[in-house]
Specification:
There is one protein chain. The longest helix is centred in the last third of the chain and has 19 residues. This protein is an alpha/beta fold. The protein is built from 13 helices and 29 strands. Helix 2 packs across helix 10, helix 5 packs across helix 12 and helix 9 packs across helix 11. Among the domains are: about 55 residues, Molybdopterin biosynthesis moea protein, domain 2, CATH 3.90.105; about 90 residues, Beta Complex (Molybdopterin biosynthesis moeA protein, domain 3); about 150 residues, 3-Layer(aba) Sandwich (Molybdenum Cofactor Biosythetic Enzyme, Chain A), CATH 3.40.980.10; about 70 residues, MoeA, C-terminal, domain IV (Beta-clip). The chain is elongated, with a radius of gyration of 31 Å. Strands 1, 2, 3, 16, 19, 20, 21, 23 and 24 form a nine-stranded mixed β-sheet that branches. Keywords: Magnesium, Metal-binding, Molybdenum, Molybdenum cofactor biosynthesis, Transferase. One of its GO terms (cellular component) is cytosol. It catalyses: adenylyl-molybdopterin + molybdate = Mo-molybdopterin + AMP + H(+). Its EC number is 2.10.1.1. Its cofactor is Mg(2+).
């Protein structure tokens, strides 16, 4: 369940969303140092009247006083001017371009001259979402926190790997021919680590011809060692060692079972290239190379804003109500895509409440986290009905529209915008399957761009069925792989989820349709492995 932030202490709420008070203090400091936050501090804070409520995002709710609404409208009029902001430079054009405005259902949306954002085809939408983002700044993290992060700088070996010659077997290090006299090192008065260390102690001996000493796997090979006789092939009588009947003649051969220093990598060699998404094996390799921390691109910080007065968070819905399908799964979905959800909340289906939630004026820890984040994902409200406010809020906030609808089904009313403070807004449709397709098509590529990762190319599958044409629009169809063919799942409508829940991937049917056996583009599902 989402927190009711107006009635929860900051410490309790931060812990509920995976943030400690110490992290809250760090976020306060980050945001306070940023130009974005300094600009916000110059604004006048909006406060509800006594008895009014606050939305989950700290903005004024629909019960706020008319004075709050008036100040909001006045603030936008002052910023945009009498002409509503005509002639302003588009964000990101370096101030040298002319802002172009497109009209959608009577609302003016600021767009770039570079492309018309309306009704883009599926592949173009993916490319634009990825290209709109730039890699985030570097940060240093411990190895334990590096999994799944994008490596910003190559990892070099700080010493030879392995850094000493070691035994590959339990047995005896030997010099010369058998029988060998068993020797051991002299016990030091004080051990280096305060206690005996058999792996290191074996290296304290210098073997003379005809001598041997016991050694463990990974133990330091003594000076003058010719090879390692494994335990299974040795016979000890008193202080003498010989081969047993299972040993080969002449065993051990020269350097047998000895791992030389630098066998895997030499000091200074590159072990992991920059730009990779770190997996467990690479983190282990970084540790072997001698590193305690790694320099990675900062994971994109994401905020969630759910809308819909008809949505309930628990229990069985009555007619006219629906269960929340976004709150329980979006944080995990974002994590699978490489982002991190800082805060999540809900706004009422009211234009001023939505504007206040999106604008994220920093009045408390939660709005401060949103204001200093990278991406705001909204759910619902991207249509054109009187109850849909996301697009109108973007117009009021003078946001730059990058994607204003995608020629795909489901998921057509998907939005991508850049807010005045530099944050991205991804507007997901309210129907759950449509929203999931929008996450894969827009949010995934955007987060990849922020992480400095390349845009993943679609995979290819063979369609198991023929599809009739749907001119001007791609269809995103969950499928199951059966005998090497992508068979469409059942229940593919935008409000249905059972087909996607059991799917192996999503195939993209072009507008002209396809025949059975045609090769099609497909999107992987981040939760499907193998």
């Amino acid at each position: 369940m989402l927190e009711s932030w107006g009635s929860t202490s900051p410490e309790t709420a931060w812990r509920a969303h995976g943030r400690s008070p110490e992290t809250a203090a760090r976020l306060d400091g980050e945001a306070a140092r940023s130009p974005r936050a300094r600009g916000h501090r110059r604004r006048r804070r909006l406060r509800p009247r006594v008895g009014g409520t606050r939305s989950a995002f700290g903005g004024a709710s629909c019960s706020a006083t008319d004075d709050v609404r008036g100040r909001l409208r006045g603030r936008h009029r002052r910023r945009n001017g009498p002409g509503g902001g005509e002639g302003r430079h588009a964000i990101g054009d370096g101030g040298g371009g002319r802002a172009v405005r497109g009209r959608r259902d009577g609302a003016e949306c600021r767009v770039s001259e570079a492309t018309d954002p309306r009704n883009l085809d599926w592949e173009r939408a993916r490319t634009l979402a990825h290209g709109a983002a730039h890699p985030l700044p570097y940060q240093t993290v411990t190895l334990a926190d590096a999994l799944g992060r994008t490596l910003a700088e190559p990892v070099h070996a700080l010493q030879d790997i392995p850094h000493y010659a070691s035994s590959a077997m339990d047995g005896w290090a030997v010099n010369g021919q058998p029988p060998w006299t068993l020797v051991s090192h002299a016990e030091p008065e004080e051990h280096r680590w305060g206690r005996p260390s058999p792996h290191a102690d074996s290296g304290e001996v210098a073997l003379a011809p005809g001598e041997a000493t016991f050694i463990l796997t990974g133990g330091v090979v003594p000076e003058n060692t010719e090879g390692i006789l494994r335990t299974e092939h040795g016979l000890v009588r008193g202080d003498l060692l010989d081969r047993n009947e299972d040993a080969r003649a002449g065993e051990p051969s020269p350097r047998e079972h000895i791992r030389p220093a630098g066998e895997e990598a030499g000091k200074g060699s590159e072990a992991i290239r920059a730009g990779v998404v770190l997996n467990p094996a690479q983190i282990a390799l970084a540790a072997v190379c001698g590193h305690d921390t790694l320099t990675v691109l900062r994971a994109p910080r994401v905020s969630l804003l759910m809308t819909g007065d008809e949505v309930i968070e628990q229990g069985l819905p009555h007619p006219g109500q629906v269960r929340d399908t976004f709150g329980p799964q979006l944080p995990g979905f974002v994590s699978m895509l490489g982002g991190h959800v800082d805060v999540a909340g809900r706004a009422k289906d009211d234009l001023e409440d939505v504007i206040a939630a999106i604008s994220a004026e920093p009045t408390d820890e939660f709005s401060l986290a949103r204001a200093s984040g990278d991406v705001l994902i909204t759910t619902g409200g991207t249509g054109s009905s009187s109850a849909d406010h996301i697009r109108r809020a973007l117009v009021e906030l003078d946001a730059e529209l990058i994607i204003d609808g995608i020629a795909m089904r489901p998921g057509h009313p998907t939005l991508l915008a850049r807010l005045q403070d530099g944050r991205f807004l991804v507007g997901l449709p309210g129907n759950p399957l449509a929203a999931m397709m929008a996450m894969l098509t827009v949010a995934g590529p955007l987060i990849a761009g922020l992480r400095g990762s390349a845009l993943a190319a679609p995979s290819r599958v063979l369609s198991g069925e023929a599809f009739e044409p749907l001119p001007g629009r791609s269809r995103l169809v969950p499928y199951r792989l059966t005998a090497g063919r992508a068979m469409p799942s059942t229940h593919q409508r935008s409000g249905m989820l059972s087909g996607l829940a059991g799917a192996d991937g999503v195939m993209v049917i072009p507008g002209e349709g396809c025949a059975a056996g045609d090769e099609l583009a497909a999107m992987a599902l981040p939760w499907v492995t193998g």
